User: Which sequence fits this backbone?
């Protein structure tokens, strides 16, 4: 096991232990239990740890990432699944250099191993809408302020065109 892999594995274990411990901590002043992470957040962290281990074991290629993303999309419920399938096609058509992969259990698309954009289903964190977002790796800057994620309840043709243009811009 390389030093980098060992260090990454240790970091993951330490983060998991801290997350577990934070649930049990009490505040000094009030004596009440600290809130900690929600079950959904804990599940996302565990999923990300599994993803990192899988990537470390085998050099992930585009085909492996594609099958992982399609499997995650298949697990989604109704409207989120339909939007995720459509977004997957839009991202692939708009930015062929991006590699599909999962990121915290969500479909994501990376350039040189770094996530550029992702889709978060509404059911992921029990939200009332799905989200399509961009990481800081995306080149979508517009002046001093710009949106980095978009709430989605459905996809219209205009939304699809806008997302396609943003994804193209993100990888430019």
Assistant:
């Amino acid at each position: 096991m390389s030093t980098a892999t060992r260090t990454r594995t240790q970091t993951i274990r330490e983060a998991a232990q801290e997350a577990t411990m934070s649930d049990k901590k009490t505040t000094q002043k009030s004596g009440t239990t600290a809130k900690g992470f929600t079950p959904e957040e804990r599940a996302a962290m565990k999923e990300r740890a599994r993803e990192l281990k899988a990537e470390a074991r085998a050099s992930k290629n585009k085909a492996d990432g594609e099958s992982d993303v399609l499997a995650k999309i298949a697990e989604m419920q109704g409207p989120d699944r339909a939007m995720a399938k459509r977004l997957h096609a839009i991202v692939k058509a708009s930015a062929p250099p991006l590699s599909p992969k999962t990121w915290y259990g969500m479909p994501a698309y990376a350039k040189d191993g770094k996530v550029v954009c992702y889709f978060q289903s509404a059911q992921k964190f029990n939200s009332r809408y799905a989200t399509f977002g961009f990481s800081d790796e995306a080149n979508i800057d517009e002046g001093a302020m710009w949106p980095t994620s978009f709430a989605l309840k459905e996809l219209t043709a205009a939304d699809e065109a806008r997302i396609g243009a943003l994804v193209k811009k993100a990888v430019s």
